Amino acid sequence: xxxxxxxxGREVLIKAVAQAIxxxxxxxxxxxxAICDAxxxxxxxxxxxxxxxxxQLHWLSWENLCxxxxxxxxxxxxxxxxxxxxxxxxxxxxxxxxxxxFFKVYKAKYFPNGNFLNATLGSSPFxxxxxxxAARPVIKSGTRWRIGCGHEVCVCQHRWIPKPSTFKVVSPCxxxxxxxxxxxx
Length: 185
What we know:
Blueprint: H1 7-18, H2 23-28, H3 33-47, H4 62-65, H5 79-96, H6 101-110, H7 127-134, H8 136-142
Helix pairs in contact: 1-3, 5-7
């Protein structure tokens, strides 16, 4: 079949089938890295026309194939990164979708007195909860507090400064610091 497909046909087949089939499962569960790597390898081998034991030369690395077309790649998904992105989307729903049944169930079980960003794994967690928690660093790395009244934002601990390097106060806070929250500044 590979001989009958053009390069564009292979690209469409990979994006529409091979990378789309595991999408729902990846949005609910963290897939083991070995499985993600195996999917990436199969996609790469199919892209370069490798069949069974016959080896083909891979002219670009997988990382370059995963770059967008604007950056010189093909736009394939790295399955591990895609898995974390889909799980981070579920975490984002736990931050912003406070009226959903999904939010109410997870809040009652895992963070009844806090929020998703400060929640702990807990004892005997659902596999879905462990999966969503695995993607929490993805959310934390790109978020910062938007200052409203400033009553909840700690000056030294939270990410609130609009500079993208750390979003935090760089200098250490002295002991007995009187301005614990942004509101008090």
